[in-house]
Amino acid sequence: MIESRNGGQVLEVRVRHEVLRIEPWGPDSLRVRVGQHRIVEDVPGALVEPKPAQPTVWVGEASGRITNGALTAVVEKVPTDTGVVALVRFERSDTGEELLAEQQAHFWWPGARVFQAHGGGYARLEQRFAAYDGERLFGLGQHSHGRLDQKGMVLDLVQRNAEVSIPFLVSSRGYGLLWNMPGVGRVELAENGTRWVADSARQIDYWVTTGDGPADVLAHYADATGHPPVLPEWATGFWQSKLRYRNQEELLEVAREHRRRGLPLSVIVVDFFHWTHLGDWRFDPADWPDPEAMIAELDELGVKLLVSVWPSVSPLSENYPTMRDAGLLVGTERGVPLHAPWHDKGMGAEMPVAFYDPTEPAAREFVWKTAKRNYFDLGIRAFWLDGCEPELQPGHPHNLSFAAGPGTEVACLYPRENARTFFEGARVEGEDVVLLCRSAWAGSQRYGAAVWSGDIPPTWESLRAQVRAGLNIALSGIPWWTTDIGGFHGGDPDSPEYRELLVRWFSYGAFCPLFRLHGVREPRMPFGPDMTGGPNEVWSYGEEVLEHLTRTLALRERLRPYLAEQMRVAHETGVPPMRPLFVDHPSDARTWEVDDQFLLGPDVLVAPVLEAGARSREVYLPEGAAWTDAWTGKEHEGGTTVRADAPLDRIPVFLRDGAPVPVAG
């Protein structure tokens, strides 16, 4: 049966027990849900309520069609050797060009979808689409595999340190697709088809959009999942961090030294183990005797304090009994509700800890009230939401039990709902906060979540991977992003080889949306409450390096007004400030292949140096503009490749049509 429902707003198809519903969801966009017997309305997802639309629905005996702006979906009842199946094809409304089509995997296969039930209304679900020659696929969050085009990859849909699962992809064929399901699974982007898999869920839910180019697709995605707020101006400056400043005086002395040296500093970081116990969410007075005075001194220096807040709760925490008894902690399907080992203050050995459940409104309220009393009320407006995948050991999200549902169905929601705790809590107080998160899911941007790329190695290979990872997460709706400049796991400040890597990484970082130096440098200590790492301030690497880094700090200061404007554009349109060349130049086929350059806004093209010892590199300049070398003033025609000089004190940067962005001063 094929019918139009909801006053011509919905196309619905029933084939045996399968119910398929297609409805408009934002400009040029359609949402598809498929269930057994019925559509379930209370399944968590990423989509916000859309504005009213005026779709056109046509119903025939064996097919139906729904058009919403530039996107049309055609549903056909197709006879097969095993009976009739329903298949959906997406087209451009004006030309009928196929963008994407569901596909049967085999003539003896139950259509493009598989429901393998395992009881209680849950099933292992598969959704298959056709593959297309030459198609390139981007987005899907942030991954460490080092590729920009993810065609041919198999990716787990699960949150891990440095692996951020956001199931939204952008296709070179002109569409975007969101797998609107926060459960554990995988996506296979193979040559013979694309297959999305959910290990256990109640129904299939995906969303498709199109437009005149990638910028339109990104704008529609922001409309569908939420626009980011405006980034505060202070957050565009330099962030200083290390693992870790162990006490109040040590941290303040670093901020004072920046002032003495005349070096810009916007944010300084209090890392983990500053607390009494994990889950107390307050400063330990033994090391931080007067945080209010510390924040007041930082304010006089023009520096904001970012404080690390983990979602973990130790059994030794003063909050643990209350949260446990009120049902505010994540449960388990089997075994005790403790999910990761930790060696915290007061622990003679490593012990398991719990996590609070941010899908439970009462838990969000409890955590925010605690953080408000102990941090926010002191003047802190930046929170480092570390370990927010959450960091499970062993990594068994299937065993988790949330207020929102079983872990298998909803676990990937965790980082988004954790950001929501702090964003909505601050909004009630009439304030905005900046949230630096190690993970995210679709819609995290609407809660002001910035993401950094996790605990990464201090290697050239890692730096190359960061460039692609940052562009893919930007295409996944997250406009605020950064890395641990220099890598996280080590790096010897006295090594000439490492110093070169740091200088190049710092130059790259100056053009990222957020600009943050962090890492646990050599010599390192065993994990525990007394740990720290080697020095990681800009003056820690010798006078020659300091000279280079000082010039880069000044460059970032000059860029801040331009960057702030791009952040406002991201808020208004959903188009991220840092993006691949093809977002602005989709008709230039070469831009879809370039994966080691990027645009910062429309006017600044950046080509990081990604090889040890390199003092020049090739740069592709897109068609449709003239490009001026920001350092030499030499103009080049678009559609050409040039070899640009790259001495150690700078990386190649080009300005579109002579744009007046003060890169060189």
Automatic annotation (TrEMBL):
Keywords: Glycosidase, Hydrolase. Gene3D superfamilies: Glycosidases, glycosyl hydrolase (family 31), Golgi alpha-mannosidase II. Residues 574-659 form the Glycosyl hydrolase family 31 C-terminal domain. It comes from Saccharomonospora cyanea NA-134. Belongs to the glycosyl hydrolase 31 family. InterPro entries: Gal_mutarotase_sf_dom, GH, Glyco_hydro_31_C, Glyco_hydro_31_TIM, Glyco_hydro_b, Glycosyl_Hydrolase_31. PANTHER family: HYDROLASE, PUTATIVE (AFU_ORTHOLOGUE AFUA_1G03140)-RELATED, MALTASE-GLUCOAMYLASE. Pfam families: Glyco_hydro_31_2nd, Glyco_hydro_31_3rd. This is Family 31 glycosyl hydrolase, alpha-glucosidase.
